[in-house]
Amino acid sequence: MRQTLSFIPTLRETPADAEVKSHQLLLRAGFIRQNTSGIYSFLPLGKRVLHKVEKIIREEMEAINSVEVFMPALQQAELWQETGRWYSYGDELMRLKDRNDREFALGATHEEIITSLLRDEIKSYKKLPLTLYQIQSKFRDEKRPRFGLLRGREFLMKDAYSFHATTESLDKTYDDMMQAYSNIFSRLGLNFRAVIADSGAIGGKDNHEFMVLSEIGEDTIAYSDNSSYAANIEMAAVNMEYPKSDEQARPVEKVSTPDQKTIAQVADFLETTPENCIKTLVFKADDELIVVLSRGDHEVNDVKVKHISGAKLVDMATPEDVRELLSCDIGSIGPVGLPEGTRVFADNAVKSIVNGVTGANEDGVHLKNVTPDEDFTVEAYGDLRFVKEGDASPDGEGTIQFAKGIEVGHIFKLGTTYSEPMKATFLNDQGKAMPYIMGCYGIGVSRIVAAVAEQFQDDSGFTWPTAVAPYEIHVVPVNVKDDVQRETGEEIYEQLKAQGFEVLLDDRKERAGVKFADADLIGLPLRITVGKRAAEGILEVKIRETNETVEWHKDEMQDKVREFFKK
């Protein structure tokens, strides 16, 4: 492609609203442009990168016998109502009405659509298993779109769905997908880890996220420093024993604690430690207010609260909710003397506390000498806290460390989460109607572009790996007004194209400094500069990844290029 015929609007200055380097460079190098908050156009270079990512995904999907389809983005509300997600998915679901006042959603995901499609077509176990996938735009009304392509309101996604007659069949496809995803991210050159994750609004049980390690990642990964264990911090298990004090429980004592509301303030005021305090939080679990307890130095994990309570949605209760339940402010609540019928859940560490400190459900007052199971009742104990760095790894090998990650893929074992409410059944080998057993597998295609861009860059611009570079080679005649340079550049361009290489020719009438700056910014793997020594047949070649510069003779150029790209 000739640069004068393409659309590559590079920028010298960094846009003020671009927070991270990948976003800045994608804008500056002319790969994308923002239309409005969280919505982007892919320009020619960006579209070529997208196409290459899609090609790798398609190859790995087809290698495990996944079949591509294309489903509508506009989805009728009735399907989402069958599963209940029309009401539970939340504000991220973009809803709209047509001229006849019928309700629709712009597809945030496609479980309902694909399940409705299969229930009308596949009636026998003999046609299972079946895995279908698509690459299509998704829409989510993000509260705070940020980081360019990493968190947008419209984005490109690969979503696959598998249908099975048995759990063993699902397990096989899940393992195949796990390997296919690992292959995809390895081929892209990404530094990633597969981590245990929460299913969130998708539902289902077993699932893994694929995280690209990056300091700008919005997710925290908890991993063992001595094994392969890795989990999203929301799902990282805490597997610890908490020895109980052998001191005798003393009578509960009410004490005044004016203006002392945080755990640190109360512990200091009463000359104790946060570990001896019982933190009390009120959550709204679906439509019910529940109480959750943790040790004062621990943080409650709302995902684990959702699991132990059996709720579909869990949020912190509002100050108004707390006052209505307990007649006090949030900083003074505690588990003693709760209204009858209030469900109480506690982290395992709470059970070891003897003569602890907690709120008295009275503003400016706390209780001393509070002991669980003597002074209040707990419905269930469990692992309800966030893991901390330095905790023992759940697999018993090493200790937990933290790293930041960008989620680029997520795979789920859905089971019958969608097939049962949607009455999507098949006849098994005994002629009995059974709900499909399903799996769901997503990859953020446009997010991958940002993740690769974040990982492959330097101070001058991108250093794209060959697998996803928009072009392989940048041919740069320094002065197109010089006949020898221009003609040599044209000759090299045509020769390399004829050999099957993807080549960008900078045939613009620009100064050398502008051309070199743009070439570094765009970041193609190999740059061939045709300069003052063109008449001697000497070319200057720059390897963008290392910034190494060498000289090649024009006559050896094609062999050298094939050797570089191993073609």
Considering the protein shown, what is the CATH homologous superfamily of the largest domain?
Bira Bifunctional Protein, Domain 2
Helix content: 10-25%
- Portion of residues in beta strands equals 25-35%
CATH architecture of the largest domain: 2-Layer Sandwich
Name the poorly predicted regions: none
| pLDDT averaged over residues | 94
Q: Which fold name is given in CATH as the topology of the largest domain?
A: BirA Bifunctional Protein, domain 2
Rg for CA atoms: 29 Å
Summarize this structure as a short list of keywords or feature phrases.
protein biosynthesis, YbaK protein, aminoacyl-tRNA deacylase activity, Rossmann fold, alpha+beta, 567 residues, EC 6.1.1.15, proline-tRNA ligase activity, 13 helices, BirA Bifunctional Protein, domain 2
